[in-house]
Amino acid sequence: DRAAREARPGSAIRVHAGTYAGGQYIEDLRGTNAAPIWIGGAAGESAPVLSGGGEGLHLVRPAWVVVHDLEVEGASGNGINADDGGAYGDPDAAAHLLIQRVAVHDIGGDGNQDCLKLSGVNDVVIFDSAFARCGGNRSGSGIDMVGVHTAVIARSRFQEHSGNAIQAKGGSAGIEIRWNRM
Fold first, then answer.
1. d(CA 124, CA 150)
2. Gyration radius from the chain CA atoms
3. N or C end of the chain: which has fewer CB within 10 A?
């Protein structure tokens, strides 16, 4: 929490190998084009695990953020959630998000819980990640997007979802889905 509060453009929040409590809620983590903020595992170590909580990791109004080398498991809601915090009219409220080498699995229960939930995020790239066993009652998605504009989802794996691998709805546009295994 402290590292996220103190992060400035160009900061790298490194999480060492181990298991940590899920339920991490981070608002206004905002880098720049020239100096994004990195949040993820430490180089040369096993990916840290965020386990449990309502959501493993929730980013509200992130901009120019790279989420990398993390594992999220056992959250009762969504695994990773990124949204615009209700700032629907601001295209920069949540923008320029890169998610790479992330594993999200065993999320939710009998409802509509997703491995990765994106709402109102613009310019997203997701690659080399794995999403498995999210949600229940045929409604959970590997990636669920609402109002997402300009996204690429590539080279990722989707397994054993109750609903679907990838869902783009609610005005989402410009979504490229390629080179994935579902």
1. 7
2. 15
3. N
What is the C-alpha separation between 79 and 56, in angstroms, rounded?
A: 5
Contact yes or no for 175/153 (Cβ under 8 A): yes
- Residue tagged 């700032």 (tokens): 87
Residue 86: how many CB atoms within 10 A of its CB? 12
Q: 3-state class of 5 per DSSP?
A: helix
Distances (CA, A) of 131 to 80, 101, 161: 11, 11, 8
Token pair belonging to 160? 């054993």
118 is written with which tokens?
A: 């994106």
Share of the chain above pLDDT 70, in %: 100
Q: Which of 90, 5, 62, 33 lies closest to 80 in space, CA to CA? A: 62
Q: Is 81 left (phi over 0), alpha (psi -120 to 50) or beta?
A: beta
- Rounded to the nearest 5°, which phi and psi values hold at 157? -115, 140
**pLDDT category of residue 110 using cuts at 50, 70 and 90:** confident
E strand residue ranges, 46-129: 49-51, 57-60, 63-73, 80-83, 95-107, 116-119, 122-127
Copy the structure tokens of residue 131. Answer: 């999403």
Classified as helix, coil or strand, 155 is coil
What pLDDT score was predicted for residue 138? 73
Distances from the Cα of 75 to the Cα of 18, 30, 84, 114, angstroms: 17, 25, 21, 10
